[in-house]
Amino acid sequence: MGLPDPLAQQVLHITKLAGDKIMAIYEKDFAIYEKQDTSPLTEADLAAHHVIVDELKSISELPILSEESADIDWQERQTWQQYWLVDPLDGTKEFIKKNGEFTVNIALIDGGKPVMGVVYAPALNKAYVGIEGKGAWTEQDGELTAISAKVHSAGETWKIVGSRSHQSPEIQNLMAQLDGGTELVAMGSSLKLCLVAEGEAHLYPRLGPTSEWDTGAAHAVATAAGAKVTVLDPENPLDPDAEALTYNQKESVLNPFFLVSA
Ligand SMILES: Nc1ncnc2c1ncn2[C@@H]1O[C@H](COP(=O)(O)O)[C@@H](OP(=O)(O)O)[C@H]1O
Ligand SMILES: [Mg+2]
């Protein structure tokens, strides 16, 4: 049985096409690039971007905002009710380090909210899909498995997702406010939000810069799996009334700090 939404099925297919382009470059010996002007990262990023844009245009007339073509006027973006938000290759450090934790990200945003998203990690052969009101799944070798965020229960060790690339005193501070032990789970790219979506972690506090395309798709997966993605105030990191993270509501595409919580 496939996904309960033909559009999501098509988007999943598109992320796979982009993943194939990325893997063809990832599997090369990066040393061959030393004598060229280009880098494997740029080549993989652009190859994925082009296939995603071509394929999305063939199935939909909605505008596309991709990290690789993000110079679209705020004047124009303000007119968008729905659009595709794309990060063709998230986790560039992970790609270069060859640890496999990089992703292809496509989100459908409607009225500032991610309503459908696919995150595909080609090197891990694993995809995450979230569809508002219908649920969230992982997909591996054609097999779909429903996922859901798992709320922390009393006495359990808090599993907190952290960046492989940066740590901060604010995160230490947040961890000090939690009752019970804490364990840090390291992960690269948008897979960090997916860990909360699939119940492998309770919290992902992001106290560092990200852009909207870094989070849109995984945000859709997380919320469809029952998690929350809210704006994080470092002074009050566990505020139960924190507002949802939104998209395309301001000129800058930078996200505020945010918290993903099961
Ligand atoms: N100064 C900055 N401004 C905007 N985004 C930034 C940033 N520094 C890091 N990021 C974002 O954080 C992501 C890496 O996060 P992490 O280290 O947690 O995996 C990067 O994704 P890319 O790898 O796609 O560039 C990048 O988009
Ligand atoms: Mg990115």
Automatic annotation (TrEMBL):
Keyword Coiled coil set for record: no
Protein name: 3'(2'),5'-bisphosphate nucleotidase CysQ
EC number: 3.1.3.7
Binding site for Mg(2+) 1: 67, 87, 89
Cofactor section: Mg(2+)
Residues engaged in binding Mg(2+) 2: 87, 90, 214
Gene this protein is translated from: cysQ
Catalytic activity: adenosine 3',5'-bisphosphate + H2O = AMP + phosphate
Residues holding substrate: 67, 89-92, 214
Chain segments annotated as coiled-coil in the UniProt record: none
GO molecular function, one term: 3'(2'),5'-bisphosphate nucleotidase activity
Keyword set includes ATP-binding: no
Top enzyme class: hydrolase
Bilayer topology: Peripheral membrane protein
